[in-house]
Amino acid sequence: MKKSISIATGLLSLLLIVGCSNKNKSNSNASQESSKSTISSKKQSSKETDADKMDNDVESKSGSTEKSASSSSHSETISSSKISKSSQSSTDKVATKKMNFDQIQNGNYSSLVGNWKLIKAVGRHKDVTDRTDSTLNITPSLLKTRDMELSKDGLTDSNDTHPIEVKKVGDALNIINSEGDPKTNGFSQYNWGVTFYPANSQNVIIDGEKQAPISKNLIAIWVSSDNYTEVFEEE
Question: Which one of 1, 156, 194, 221 is CB 3.0 to 4.6 Å from 149, fit for a cystine?
Answer without folding.
Answer: 156
